[in-house]
Every structure is written in structure tokens, then in C-alpha cells.
Design goal:
With 156 residues, the chain is an alpha+beta fold. Helix content is 30%, strand content 29%. The longest helix is centred in the N-terminal third of the chain and has 15 residues, at 15-29. The chain starts with 5 loop residues before the first strand and ends with a strand. 28% of the residues are buried.
Length: 156
């Protein structure tokens, strides 16, 4: 089901698509953009995800349309964070999320991570199920993300 879909690093010319996907994700979870706070990483994604300390990945459909995102960034030496993992509902349930997670794990290892953390909402059952399938287990809160109610980590 994933034939023709590609996962690649975001480029400067993807700015409008990145902004659209984040806004769609926020609408999906019932929140709004906070460029000076929680969403600072996306407001300044070209600096935050520059390939040295973080990477922003895009899911692109066969027509070249961006259909999802995911990012990995360093929190501290050896510890990374999975951020902004989102697939449009039309792309969910087709195995694309697994491909995206595989790419994120590869990028985390490339950044030198020995552990990868994430925060999420327990009500996002499909996402939480995917994280558990990949060996993420619950940990105590490691940040102050007001949107999250579940924090997870796995070794790499």
C-alpha cells in the first residue's frame, strides 16, 4: 500500500507544506500554533532541524504532495526526541507510519542517539500502539509540554 510514497528530508522550499502539515496536525488534536512556545521548533524548523542537531522528514505521495511529517532532535548528548510525527488520516493504516518510524530511528542513530524519547497524548491510540510496537515504554515526564499526557522512551 505504500508504493510510490517517499520519505525525505525537508528542504527550504518545503516551508509552506511544513506549515500546512503542522496546522493540520494541531487542528486534529484541537490546538493552535504557538510559535513562541511549544511550536518554536517548527516556527524555526530550518535552524532547529539543520541536519546536525535535528532532522525534519516529510512523507511525500506519488504526486509529490506532502502528506505527513516527523522529526528527530537532540535533547542532550546521546538522547534524542521524536517530534511532529503526523500522517494525514487518508494515509494512516497503510504501513507508511512504520516506514516513517524506521527512517526516524535511522536518523536518531546517525545523530548519535542511544535513546529516543517522545511525548504524546494517550487518546492518540494508533500512534501510541505504533510506539509500543517499536519498543517504546512509558517513562516519567521529561518536559513541560502541556499537550502531552504520556511520555515514552526506547533504547537504540
Amino acid at each position: 500500500m505504500t508504493a510510490g510514497f517517499a520519505i525525505r528530508r525537508a528542504r527550504p522550499e518545503d516551508h509552506a507544506s511544513v506549515a500546512r502539515e503542522l496546522n493540520d496536525y494541531l487542528a486534529f488534536i484541537g490546538d493552535t500554533f504557538d510559535g513562541h512556545g511549544l511550536d518554536h521548533d517548527i516556527a524555526h524548523w530550518q535552524e532547529e532541524y539543520d541536519g546536525r542537531t535535528g532532522v525534519l522528514l516529510l512523507v511525500v505521495d506519488p504526486a509529490g504532495e506532502v502528506m505527513g511529517t516527523a522529526a528527530v532532535r537532540l535533547l542532550e548528548p546521546g538522547v534524542g526526541e521524536l517530534k511532529r510525527m503526523w500522517l494525514r488520516p487518508a494515509c494512516q493504516g497503510k504501513g507508511i507510519g512504520r516506514r516513517l518510524m524506521d527512517a526516524c530511528l535511522e536518523e536518531a542513530r546517525r545523530l548519535g542517539c542511544r535513546a529516543l524519547r517522545l511525548d504524546t497524548q494517550a487518546r492518540l491510540a494508533a500512534a501510541v500502539g505504533l510506539y509500543r510496537t517499536y519498543g517504546f515504554g512509558e517513562i516519567s515526564r521529561y518536559n513541560d509540554n502541556r499537550r502531552a499526557d504520556l511520555w515514552m522512551e526506547r533504547a537504540l
